Structure of Alanine racemase:
Amino acid sequence: MTEKVTIADVARLAGVSRQTVSNALNTPDVVREETRQRVLEAVERLGYRVNQAARQMRTGRSRLIAIRIEPDRDGINGSVLDRFLHGLTDSAARSGYRVLLYTADGDRGEIDTIEDLLGAYEPDAFVLTSTHHDDLRTSWLRERKVPFVTFGRPWGDLDGAGHPWVDVNGAAGTAAATRHLLAAGHRRIGFLGWPPGSGVGDDRREGWARTLAAAGIDPGGLSRATSDGVADGEAAAHDLLGPGGSGVTALVCVSDSLALGALHAARSPGLAWRAGGSADRPVAVIGFDDTPVAKAVGLTSVSQPLAEAAAGCVALLARLLDGPAPAPDDPPAHELLDPSLVVRQSA
């Protein structure tokens, strides 16, 4: 029978005291990063497993961060949050936390699930995704003083300053895409987006419209709003590019799903020519999210710094959970990250 690895074994291999090992695993903020990494390497090498139940009784902390798994949807844009989850799990582990996953449908369903999790597993904090106007989840958690951070801004929430958040600047991404097309000589640049009222969608549309206006181009009549799907994107692109369209020669899209549909429409026989393109220079298309499908088909797309966003969420939570208590008048921290444009054949 294999002998059980103890905390003393980890301390001996790492060249530190048993208390330092305990601190590195339970309160990593009080240990130097170099020492913590040495302890974690010893833990990994020896296969040491922390007694989670004993640690929770001792510290009153579960070291669990809970987050909802998003629906798969069309299998394209759903991969964005898959990559965010991977980054969150990795960053959480480096800070001594584990990630607890759950599913839920709608705000009310998620609140019910959160309440169940608090009773059964006592997670230390939550990460909320897919923030939106009138988000019931954030007010529920704030009222109960449950620590949380959102990946997404508090859209339209006047009390949004009351919690920390990390987000990606969607307007900066579509602005970069529009500037790229302007530099390539396009003047009639259309936009495929979601119906008004979506915080994320409105933000991305604003970057496109503002950049065209700054270039002296009226964006009126150059956009279409639709549901998020490949077929929806194709239909909206046909409407914008087809007979009676606006002479559009390029499209910026709010998602890769819409962009893939637009790409199919733009490559339809004869449509590119009617839209203002030509056989040698078909309509250019740019998506948003830089999904694996975009890479596979050569779609130019805006890439979100998902690993950095995940690390930012964990850092904000660690500050809430492990750092000194903030003063009552201290504003909560937030971080707005800039995306990057990945240029491929479609633009």
